Amino acid sequence: MNLRTKLTAAVTLTFLAASALPASAGVFGKKKTDQTVTRKPTPAQNALIDKAILREAAVIKTLRERQPLVETYIQNMRPDPAMIQVPEMDAHYLTRINFGREITEVGYADGKKDSTGKFSGIKQALGGLAGLTKSLHLSYDEGGFVRMVVIDTNGPNGDAFDRQHYNFYFVRNDFLGTVPTVVFDVEPIKRSAGRFFGRVWVERNGGNIVRYNGDLAGEDKDRAEFYHFDSWRTNVQDGLWMPTASYIEESDPKSPAHVLKFKAVSHIWGYSLKIPNKDTDQTSLEVEGAIDTSQQAPDVSPLQAQREWVQQAEDNVIDRLYTAGLVDAPSDFDKTLSDLANNILAYNQIPTARPLKVRILLTTPLESLSIGNTILISKSLIDTTAIPTTDGAQQGANLNALLAFQVAHILLGHRVDTKYAFSDRLLFPSERAFQRLPMHHTNAENVEAAKKAMELLNAKDLADGQKYFSLYLQQLQAREKGLPELNKPQIGDGLLKPDGTFWMQAIVSKGPKLDNNDLKQQGAMPLGQYLRYDAWTDQVIQMHTTYEPLLSSRDKIPFEITPVYQRLAYWQPTAAPVAAPAAAPAPAADNAPVDNAPAVQPTQPQPTTGTSTPPQN
Fold first, then answer.
1. What are 243's strand-pairing partners?
2. Distance CA 201, CA 232 (A)
């Protein structure tokens, strides 16, 4: 399926009515084998439920005013003798959604079907969105697109989550991260398809629903039209909790090894897209050996004018990608990657008057690109290369290899089309950003850049890291057939050639042979391993997690979707920066690498707490 089709058709699954944990199953039935016993709420708990109902209506009102990006990535699974299950096929969908249009007053409660056999409420809630591709050999129903965002859209304003339609039963008090919650089981009074049936976590202080888990079948019986989901919300502003992530999975009842039929994850971001402040996008990095004459000479040379023109095109494209929600807001982690990219120049004694910058593509496919002197790397490339080691060397080496490929494009003059220096070229709707901004290089340019990248990585301080990226590419090669969508770039350059080999194939022979049974060897990590992002500001945030030791080869889940589980916290306003006293820079040798750069900090394998140290270059 091409990208144009995806943008108009495929986001339907983004909010499938489905959940990873059928928490409601067995809770409302005749027998309760769970140790948790539901009971009628106390007056204080009833007051909290009433507050949660009001807060849910406020969430719907806020959603109507927003047009965030919604991305769904699906993996269809098959049995594997060594690792239980591996992806057999995948699908990726991305679009920007106008929730004011999608949340309708036509509901699901009556379970009525139209002439096509689909639920009428589902059809109208989806508007013009078409059905999912059938390439996964699964019968995905369009139901629940909006319903992963709000619990019940059957009311006149899309807010039918109330006491007239639902019974509530107290389960327990619980903490999700640092947020105290009260857990309730929720049962529709009239058990009809399209009603939520499951469990909700209500934060005790403000009455906001921060997590809900179940399905939309309206009862504890499985229905083919709906799947199970586990939906999470994040405190993005004071008192405002917005949907940010959902996990969906269904088991294969015919599998004796309990292999999943499929699993999927949905992410929402871009709730508050703003034009970036250009001053915040400038790195303070100074590369030794570079001479900045821009403020010294009264005139501009023809070469300088050419580079300024290219810079203008670069700035226009980056700003447009940012306002479309595809690129992260400038962050400290961007500066970390920028330092690593500039170190590649320094190790190779390549002077520059224009330091390199790096930003993160917030989308899932494995891709990178260069626009002028700015390199973009997808979040999933960062996540899957973030191998935890004691010294951080493997993650650092992987990042160096990824960056070197795009650094090579820059050095070879493979630049962005300067037509984008004219601002009117970028005046088009955000949802058309992919069609209108193809940034990928040609096959010939990628071949040339791969050769140049190998030269850069042969520098004395970088050569030892090639063996790590070799393992990553070998692991990707082993999974590539089941992950075609993950390896299909949207606007940039992928890792694979059209023939299925890698652009940087020469690096594969630099490392040991991949062995999935060797627990001391890990080639790639699962998706979502290292970075998360603020759904309101679009800034990426480095995660700090406890190290989980591998117990068997089945714990290796490279490039796979994993369940969503967040340690929630209350929103805190950003503190105003405190100006540091001026200090004279220490002298350094020409072309020296930056040694005081912010550190990339992978989780380290320690037997107890798991700490973080920077990769050593």
1. 233
2. 10
**Angle 466-479/393-411 helices, nearest 10 degrees?**
90
Total number of residues shown for the chain: 617
Query: Which tens digits make up the pLDDT trace of 66-108?
Result: 878 888 888 999 888 888 889 999 988 887 777 766 554 333 2
Q: pLDDT tens across 541-550, in order?
A: 999 888 888 9
Please choose, from the candidates 395, 346, 394, 401, the residue with its C-alpha nearest in 3D space to the C-alpha of residue 368. Answer: 401
Provide the residue type at 96 as one letter: R
Rounded to whole angstroms, the Cα distance separating 177 from 94 reads 29
CA dihedral of 146, 151, 155, 161, whole degrees rounded to 10: -170
What's the token pair of residue 550?
Answer: 């591998």
435 Cβ contact list (under 8 Å, min separation 6): 3, 4, 7
Q: What are phi and psi of 169, to 5 degrees?
A: -130, 130
How many angstroms separate the Cα of 339 from the Cα of each of 292, 335, 366, 582? Answer: 18, 6, 22, 21
**Rounded to two decimals, what is the model's pTM?**
0.78
Separation in Å, CA 361 to CA 185, 421, 576: 38, 21, 27
Q: Give the integer Cα–Cα distance in Å for 454 and 457.
A: 5
**Number of helices (H) and strands (E), helices first, in the chain?**
11, 14
507: nearest Cα among 461, 456, 558? 456
